[in-house]
Design brief:
Shape: globular
CATH architecture: 3-Layer(aba) Sandwich
Order of helices and strands: EHEHEHEHEH
Strand content: 15-25%
CATH superfamily: Response regulator
Largest sheet: 5 strands, parallel
Distance between the termini: 23 Å
Strand order of the largest sheet: 2-1-3-4-5
Length: 129
């Protein structure tokens, strides 16, 4: 494994604390810096404003402001931030809606560490991703 010194900081957003903890463990094991974590859309937007993360792992289904709304705001305010949606709802319609709204990738729950890291790497390797 080669360590990339230019790995972006990552914001983890999910209303389930176990999912957030799992993602943070996966990311830290691969030398990513955690910019922060949020359990809802409003907190996610505040942390994005404060930390300008390079990548946001964003759950779609959250109480209050859902992930697709948050995605649209992030892409409007921080267009260079790469957002990877995370959801158990992986219907083609949902995936297409996320991609059309600016998502750079989509991770289906339940996930494993290899899949999460592969998807982040693929998004980062794409130019303009």
């Amino acid at each position: 494994m080669t360590v990339k010194p230019d790995k972006p900081n990552v914001l983890v957003v999910d209303d389930d604390s176990m999912i957030r903890d799992t993602l943070k463990i996966i990311l830290r094991a691969d030398d990513y810096e955690i910019a922060g974590e949020a359990s809802n859309g409003e907190s996610a937007l505040e942390l994005c404003r404060k930390f300008h993360p390079g990548v946001v792992l964003l759950d779609i289904n959250m109480p209050g402001m859902d992930g697709l709304e948050v995605l649209r705001v992030i892409k409007q305010r921080l267009p260079a931030t790469r957002v990877i949606m995370i959801s158990a709802d992986s219907t083609m319609e949902r995936v297409k809606e996320a991609i059309a709204s600016g998502a750079a990738g989509f991770i289906v729950k339940p996930f494993n560490a290899g899949r999460v890291l592969d998807d982040i790497t693929a998004v980062l390797d794409r130019k303009g991703g």
